[in-house]
Amino acid sequence: MKQYEYLAKGALREYGIPVPPGRLVNNPDEAAQAVQEIGPAALKAQVLVGGRGKAGGIRFATTPDEARQVAQAMLGMDLKGYTVERLYAEGKLAIEREFYISVTTDRNKKVPLVMASLAGGVEIEDVDDAQIVRQWVDPRVGVMPYFGRELAQRLGLNGVLARELSDLVVKLYRIYQDRDAELVEINPLAVVDGHLVAADARLNIDDSALFRHGDVPIIDEGSELEQKVHKIGLAYVELDGDIAIMANGAGMAMATVDAIQYFGGKPANFLDAGGGASVEPTAQALDVLVSMHPKVIFINIFGGITRCDDVAQAILQVKNSSGIPVPLVVRLVGTNEKEGVRLLEEAGISAYSDMAPAAERAVELAGEGRA
Length: 371
Description:
The protein is α+β, with helices and mostly antiparallel strands and 371 residues long. It has helices at residues 5-14, 28-38, 64-74, 145-155, 159-178, 224-232, 250-262, 279-291, 308-321, 337-346, 355-370; strands spanning 22-25, 41-45, 58-61, 78-79, 82-83, 87-91, 97-106, 111-117, 132-136, 181-192, 195-198, 201-205, 235-238, 243-247, 269-272, 296-303, 328-334, 351-352. The protein contains eleven helices and 18 strands.
């Protein structure tokens, strides 16, 4: 579960990692009061997306009146599909250099991984691999001061910055352990007056460990559609294409996205209907896909625990109640396949047994819809 920046900064502050002065603001008057107290500040939209600065989600204010005006413009704005409801006012920094550092989990090696780079302030995916230093952690030992010294040496740092980085890595790893984190990231890790300061931060907590962290606020962030599907109990992520997708299981959903892209199409979403979703939640999820107004809907089911006849009944329920006004492509194979196919055929809906031709047909239909 992703945490807002102000919560991530709170965790860093609690563990003794330097962060700029800041406070959460909910309205323009609070923004003005924040600048009155901390001086010139950056007003940061509290939404769980990257690239906020380029999208207008980080703006600066020097005076309380300017902060009030900036907050008025930012609160309620749409930022990459998310509505900005809160801002974090943080003291403006005179940044001299920007680094990157994080602790995450290497799922291939099954051990913690510390990554650092002298090229901070940009997405780590955009940094050349040769500029990234990686050090894996022996979980039986953890991160001791020597670990940080080795990291600083590999980065070419010395003096004050090397000592501060060594201390910071130890504290960052403690957060990773204590919070059951999947990711703790500081980007940029800024150099201000010759010292390290966390200018931005991310903290993602493992959902499976939330029962151990009753004090962690549960964040239901996302677009309206994402929140709606999450309430049904299914996994959903919006994309920027025009072919709506439903599949059962995360692996199948990812394979479906890949298949659509392979044939030249653009997926509109990732929707995992789960391994055993019943008729009603499946029908509700399909209703959501219809409301997206895609060019095509592609349902790809490989039935195991999921029963093909339940999926067919969900499709028919939506078709008979609200209708499906766009072309529908169905791939249906597995448990109770014959019954599911029979139900669909009686309603005039044919079903594919192989994914590739079904995906190709979905892309063809979307192309016809765009023509």
